[in-house]
Amino acid sequence: MKKIVITRNINPDIVDKLRKDFEVSVWEEDQKPMPREKFLEETKDAHAVLSMLSDKVDEEFLSNAPELKVVANLAVGFDNIDLDAARRHEVVITNTPDVLTETTAELAFTLMLVSARKVLAANKELMEGGWSGWSPYHMAGTDVFGKTVGIFGMGSIGAAFARRLAGFRSNILYHNRSESGAADDLGAKLVSFDELLSESDFVLCAAPLTEETKHKFDAEAFGKMKDTAHFINIGRGAHVVEDDLAEAVRTGVIAGAALDVFENEPIGADHQFVGLDNMTLLPHIGSASVATRNNMMNLCVNNIMEVLNGGRPITPVG
Ligand code: DGY
């Protein structure tokens, strides 16, 4: 019987689809990633792995798993995977595009509104008993309505975010290497990276993490933004030079930042962002609605079954 390793405790009803025809091993701990040693040990005779974005799929792992045919990554991003090594080992890699697009765009939109309107600071003040009464500029933030919004990475999530701006009469800019089909009918204008930074009141990073986009948002980039602008990141933490962002928010180079992703996750209460005014921080929950996570799991399982049964992967990458 072919063996499938699932590196996190996912929906058991979805896993059951595999149990009839395959031996399935599931890492039962919900919050903690499978330790690397265990991952290497468990997968050395595996034919398929359902991996998380916290699992490193690299040369060491691939050369240790000679039977491996497919790795189905439970994420649209696949920067945890060495695609060249996978190609060398003839291992199919799949991801979970489309099924998480709207959910992740919703979270990005939430971050923008929460940051603009100081929602977390206002909530914290009230909960801690610090609300002393109404006053004209108390917790006065900035409007999103009528502003310029710049999207770095106009893929399907960037476009879903842009569609939500229709009710806000926004001026939409985007930066991609070239014109994006995803931007058709959105009235969005392709601009240079510098123009995106200098013109936007809100800058959203929704790009995949690549060598080209890594650490793109550094002191120089933040320095080009308006001092009233907000930076939102739902891409990957490594798009940002975190020391530079902390400094930019601390010194008022930009007005605020709202982040769902960090370079080294999870971050703890001792991270330099924690406690900074005008920082909205979430624990990587972009695609975390129950329905979407179930859809992502189903897509991973279907990709695995296709490949192990000799068919074509549904959503291959690379
Ligand atoms: C992804 O799919 O890449 C997201 O970051 C997961 O929430």
From TrEMBL:
<dbReference type="Pfam" id="PF00389">
    <property type="entry name" value="2-Hacid_dh"/>
</dbReference>
<dbReference type="GO" id="GO:0030267">
    <property type="term" value="F:glyoxylate reductase (NADPH) activity"/>
</dbReference>
<dbReference type="InterPro" id="IPR029752">
    <property type="entry name" value="D-isomer_DH_CS1"/>
</dbReference>
<feature type="domain" description="D-isomer specific 2-hydroxyacid dehydrogenase catalytic">
    <location>
        <begin position="4"/>
        <end position="317"/>
    </location>
</feature>
<dbReference type="GO" id="GO:0051287">
    <property type="term" value="F:NAD binding"/>
</dbReference>
<keyword id="KW-0560">Oxidoreductase</keyword>
<dbReference type="InterPro" id="IPR036291">
    <property type="entry name" value="NAD(P)-bd_dom_sf"/>
</dbReference>
<dbReference type="GO" id="GO:0005829">
    <property type="term" value="C:cytosol"/>
</dbReference>
<dbReference type="GO" id="GO:0008720">
    <property type="term" value="F:D-lactate dehydrogenase (NAD+) activity"/>
</dbReference>
<feature type="domain" description="D-isomer specific 2-hydroxyacid dehydrogenase NAD-binding">
    <location>
        <begin position="109"/>
        <end position="286"/>
    </location>
</feature>
<dbReference type="Pfam" id="PF02826">
    <property type="entry name" value="2-Hacid_dh_C"/>
</dbReference>
<dbReference type="InterPro" id="IPR050223">
    <property type="entry name" value="D-isomer_2-hydroxyacid_DH"/>
</dbReference>
<dbReference type="InterPro" id="IPR006140">
    <property type="entry name" value="D-isomer_DH_NAD-bd"/>
</dbReference>
<comment type="similarity">
    <text>Belongs to the D-isomer specific 2-hydroxyacid dehydrogenase family.</text>
</comment>
<dbReference type="GO" id="GO:0016618">
    <property type="term" value="F:hydroxypyruvate reductase [NAD(P)H] activity"/>
</dbReference>
<protein>
    <recommendedName>
        <fullName>D-lactate dehydrogenase</fullName>
        <ecNumber>1.1.1.28</ecNumber>
    </recommendedName>
</protein>
<dbReference type="InterPro" id="IPR006139">
    <property type="entry name" value="D-isomer_2_OHA_DH_cat_dom"/>
</dbReference>
